Amino acid sequence: MLMRPYLLALVAALFLVPLLLIIGGFQATPLLPPNDTVSPYQAAQSQDFLRHAKAVIDGSDPSGVIRASEDDFNALIASAARVIRPLKGQVSIDETGLAVQVSAKAPGLARLGWINLDAKLGPSQENLALTRLKIGHIPLPPAIALWALKTGLDLATPDNFGTQLLDSVLYFEPGEGVAKLGLDAGGPGDQSLYARAFAQFESSAPSPILIAAKAHYDAMSAAVRADELNRKGSITPWLVFALRRVDAAQHSDLQLARADLHASFLALAAHCGGVGGIEKIVGDLRDAEAADYCLKTRLHRRRDLRKHFVVSAALQGVGGSTASFGLGEVKELVDSGNIRGSGFSFDDIAADRAGIRFAEKFTAATPPEYAGLIAQLTGEPAYMPSVKDLPRGLSAEDFIAQFESVDSPAYHSQLESIDQRINDLPLHQSTGSAS
Question: Are 317 and 261 in contact (CB under 8 A)?
Answer without folding.
Answer: yes
